[in-house]
Design goal:
71 residues; 18% helix; P-loop_NTPase
């Protein structure tokens, strides 16, 4: 199943995603806080092991190449 979420609010998105995924206090948690934290495009994908992939490497994979237009 594919889960899509659209947030229009300026607050609470990263905190909610961290909570849903159970990663609030892990090295993989999304930045969250009172200060502006990011303007990055972030894609979350299921994996057996948590990992971070640089966007420049990710868009080289055919299934994610359409994301290149987002920077």
């Amino acid at each position: 199943a594919i889960l899509s979420m659209l947030f229009i609010s300026k607050t609470g998105k990263s905190t909610l995603i961290n909570y849903i995924l159970g990663i609030e206090n892990s090295s993989f948690s999304l930045d969250a806080g009172a200060q502006p934290t990011t303007s990055d495009f972030i894609m979350l994908n299921y994996s057996e092991e948590p990992k971070t992939v640089d966007g420049k490497i990710l868009v080289m994979e055919k299934s994610f190449s359409s994301l290149e237009k987002y920077g």
